[in-house]
Amino acid sequence: MKILIIQHKMIGDVLLTSLLCENIKKKYPNATVDYLINNNTLPVLENNPYIDNKIVFNESKNNNLFNLIKFSKQINKNDYDVVIDAYSKLQSWVDVFINNAPKKISYKKIGRTFLYTDNVIKHKDSFTHLGLAIEHRLALLSPLGIKKPIETHPKLYLTSEEIQYAKKIFIEHGVDESRKTVMISLLGSDSTKTYPLDKMAQLVDYIGNNHNVNILFNYFPKQLNEAKIVYEQLSEKTKSKIYFDLLAKDLRTFIAIVNECDIIVGNDGGAINMAKAVGKKSFIIFSPWINKNVWATFEDNVNHVSVHLNDYFPEKFDYLTNNKIKKRVNEFYSYFDFELFKKSLSEFLDKHIKS
């Protein structure tokens, strides 16, 4: 049996959907499992033993319908028995429409059901602590006879060399081995997913002033100016605990670095998902327009805690779609003061970081 799994776009999506590969290979060891992903997400799949072939989609080279069709026809030559479309948008619809696989699985969407042999209904309420993002993906296994998936936690696979390299970086930067290390997910992938910098500075200062820890900032080089804005607002006591220049040169190095940390705190996004995939505890701040019920994975209010403005002011969200909230995200963020969840953060830190 040859199976193609499709998941375009972001790192977090690709990482969560990799669960399908693992569950299929454990249920059907002789199956060939190929994974179609965007080229920028490849690092999170390195060394994954449950993927036979990675099929790379370059968005910049396939940015028109003609190239999409050409790409999909090439993929169809692999003669798949099953296609699982976990993305279910235009790019993957073209792949599915052209593919001759006798079994095609995806989520039920109005006007798109004709593309698939099996249309899985997305449930609205989470049944477990896994979160809807994982529950929905695991539901795609049901048409393959996998009703109770064995694996529910996505994993990242570091080599011993990568682990040792991260340890070496810590030594070179003089990171205090006697203290625990907090990774701060300082900035989101864009401004609509980024907790306001002045409020983030309050959060970081709270950690630095009240706990004897090492603090690392996670940000892209292009976000250096924003990182400096946060840093300059901090007390000298907090600054003395921050290793500002300890920064990953690439995604694999980041994974190895976060593996050396104890917890991660900050904006929701790929960094959080990768940290969870190497077993780190998390405290997440969700953007007002992101659905917490979907992306708050493994939420147990002990090892994984998250906060959302809706937790405090649900009336502000009445009758508003995520898109409408996104257009007013700055207004919504203005209500999301650090004081609202300082106690929750304090309780989380007290459980996992000794003062």
Give a short synopsis of this structure.
The chain is an alpha/beta fold. The chain is built from 14 helices and 11 strands.
Question: Can you walk me through this structure?
Answer:
The protein contains 14 helices and eleven strands. The protein is of the alpha/beta class and 355 residues long. The strands form two sheets. A six-stranded parallel β-sheet has the order 3-2-1-4-5-6, sandwiched between helices. Strands 8-7-9-10-11 form a five-stranded parallel β-sheet, sandwiched between helices. Helix 5 crosses helix 9. It is globular, with a radius of gyration of 21 Å. The mean pLDDT is 95.
How many structural domains? 2
Q: Could you give a short account of the major beta sheet?
A: 6 strands, parallel
Spans where pLDDT lies below 50 across 5 or more residues: none
**How much is the average pLDDT?**
95
Beta fraction? 15-25%
Order of helices and strands: EHEEHEHEEHHEHEHHHEHEHEHHH
- What is the 3D shape? globular
User: What percentage of residues falls in helices of 4 or more residues?
Assistant: 25-40%
**N- to C-terminal distance:** 54 Å
- Output the CATH homologous superfamily of the largest domain: Glycogen Phosphorylase B
> Helix- and strand-based class?
alpha/beta
